[in-house]
């Protein structure tokens, strides 16, 4: 049985697909119980490619993956609302306030968060984000006209809002900007291929896949002999400034996930692992002394792969949760 976290995250991602356009634009691909993904139809793609600005109203709980202008007008008191934004791995999200009519003195608020929060867990984690948690929030009621444009540090962001008076609301414009060196990514899809590069920067970067997956690392350059170690109390990459680790868990925050394997040294070839956790994260830790790079591909585990476990180069984890 799927866990509550997996259900919530899959609901968010499905909601994302459904909210990419109006109902008339939605098409179902491979509709099944396990993969109810919705795609944009060719009609909406043509409209957007023609240079038109996409506009629609926001729901109290909503999700956006495309650029455009979005408005919310309260039909009744709304106390717990949020909109999730997500882009491609190489994109940053910019949110511009076009119009805001809320009663800050009456308890309304409109806040942008640099990342995602779900059930109290943050992505990126506090260990991986360049700003302290308090600075990741931008409160309109505190900043007002001082900061009317906010850019995320990664491909996800969100807003929280509370509006008491019917008729009040706001309008925002969402834009996307290119990120030359993506760091901290949530994948929109259960399969893909990605190369993460950290060029002489002292930072940690996490790539999150909210599905049980097979992940295969084909190329790893850390600037310092071959080695792959399973996590144990006395072994691993302790003392090594540059390494990649695989994490698995049932929450959103990588710092609260279970460490599954360390990759401490450069190699060319293939290291494959089946991770049956609700959330899988590949995390690169960089000292800033080298240009570090890792290339990997992933796809969602299917029933046959969960049953045939002897094909892995290293052992599997979290299968009881799926």
From TrEMBL:
GO terms for cellular component: extracellular space. Binds CRF and inactivates it. May prevent inappropriate pituitary-adrenal stimulation in pregnancy. One of its GO terms (biological process) is negative regulation of corticotropin secretion. Disulfide bonds join 60-81, 104-141, 183-205, 237-264, 277-318. Residues 1-21 form the signal peptide. Belongs to the CRF-binding protein family. PANTHER family: CORTICOTROPIN-RELEASING FACTOR-BINDING PROTEIN. One of its GO terms (molecular function) is corticotropin-releasing hormone binding. Residues 185-306 form the Corticotropin-releasing factor binding protein C-terminal domain. Keywords: Disulfide bond, Glycoprotein, Secreted, Signal. The keyword Iron does not apply. Residues 52-177 form the Corticotropin-releasing factor binding protein N-terminal domain. The keyword Secreted applies. It comes from the Eukaryota. This is Corticotropin-releasing factor-binding protein. It comes from Podiceps cristatus. It is found in: Secreted.
